[in-house]
Write a structure and sequence with these properties.
Elements lengths: L2 E8 L5 H15 L4 E8 L6 H11 L3 E6 L5 H11 L4 E4 L11 H11 L3 E6 L7 H17 L8 E8 H8 L8 H7 L4 E6 L13 H15 L2 H31 L6 H34 L6 E4 L2
Parallel strand pairs: 1-2, 1-4, 2-3, 5-7
Antiparallel strand pairs: 3-8, 4-6, 5-6
Helix pairs in contact: 5-8, 9-10
The structure holds uridine-5'-diphosphate and magnesium ion.
């Protein structure tokens, strides 16, 4: 019998997990031909998430869990889950029921019958989200689409069903700075996209503030594009060109009209602008360097404190 592993990264989800378990159980009962395992990854929660995991796992042999020694972030939880999964197919699902478990039936059918390697989901609406967040999210996707060769789909969720072959390909990417939305597309394979309307979280609250999302977006750009590094080159060339013209103008002006001293306010403005641009470009290089620095340390992506038998 084929097995589907359901990975659920959970951070402070004591209220949502039992509700998720109930819904997943229903889907499991409808899909009689497949075996299931539910892998709960407790990402160093500060509430009773770990206790809920322990309880569910003693009650049901399909449920396994592992618990991190601290909060390592969703990307680390996803990676740990993928490493632990033993199924022929693997799916990632948020704990808050924003990824409807009922879609699993259709996802499995598409892989089995239509020969896809992966079925991803994307929400077509962003209902219930602050408008400013939606606006910046759209801008991010437009930008990354232009500057990265790895395609990223607007509204794509991490919720997807993948074959073992694709999971192994993702596991072979051992980078420390993980950006799953990009990694899924980087490995390729035939992907079908299912669309659905945004669902709001059942319980608990979102772990992503605006700033966290902004930093996440910048991580994504740094991980999947080197275009920002070229800004320094192009701005440098542009400024060399401008200064060359300016020198010519000044030489001609001095030769024709003499050399009255003046214009220092404009000089100060230019110094400020040019040094600002230099710092900005150094900052971009620093951002890439810091990622390389973290990568060379080869620190573990996560540390497990407790695991089900
Ligand atoms: N999550 C996690 N570690 C974190 C933050 C979030 O494992 O540091 C999990 C969280 O429990 C949830 C999923 O990632 O299952 C998505 O988080 P959330 O629902 O807060 O994000 P949103 O849907 O608001 O983008
Ligand atoms: Mg959510």
């Amino acid at each position: 019998m084929e097995k589907i592993s359901i990975i659920v990264p959970s951070y402070n989800e004591e209220q949502a997990l039992p509700l998720l378990y109930k819904e997943v159980k229903q889907v499991m009962q409808q899909m009689k031909k497949v075996d299931f395992e539910i892998l709960l990854v407790d990402d160093g929660s500060k509430d009773k998430t770990l206790e809920v995991c322990r309880k569910l796992s003693t009650k049901d042999r399909h449920v396994k869990y592992l618990s991190f020694s601290r909060n390592f972030g969703k990307e680390a939880a996803i990676y740990a889950g993928l490493e632990m999964a033993t199924g022929d197919y693997v799916t990632l699902m948020d704990a808050d029921l924003q990824d409807p478990p009922a879609l699993l039936k259709e996802m499995y059918r598409l892989i089995k019958e239509e020969g896809y390697d992966s079925v991803g989901t994307r929400r077509v609406s962003r209902k219930g989200e602050p408008p400013i967040r939606s606006f910046f999210a759209r801008c991010f996707y437009k930008l990354i689409h232009k500057i990265s060769r790895t395609e990223m789909v607007d509204g794509a969720r991490d919720y997807r069903l993948m074959t073992r072959q694709m999971v192994d390909a993702i596991l072979s990417l051992k980078e420390y700075n993980r950006y799953s939305k990009g990694l899924f597309n980087f490995v390729g394979f035939r992907t079908k996209w299912l669309e659905y309307e945004n669902v709001e979280r059942v319980a608990g609250e979102t772990k992503w503030s605006f700033w966290k999302l902004l930093i996440y977006a910048m991580d994504g750009i740094i991980a999947f594009s080197t275009a920002p590094l070229w800004i320094a080159v192009f701005v440098g060339i542009l400024f060399c060109f401008i200064s060359f013209i300016a020198i010519l103008v000044i030489i001609i002006k001095t030769l024709c009209f003499g050399d009255p001293v003046g214009g220092w306010p404009s000089l100060v403005c230019i110094i400020f602008m040019v040094s600002g641009i230099q710092l900005f470009c150094t900052g971009i290089i620093g951002a890439y360097l810091s990622k390389t620095y973290l990568e060379t340390k080869k620190r573990p992506i996560y540390i497990i404190q407790e695991q089900s038998q």
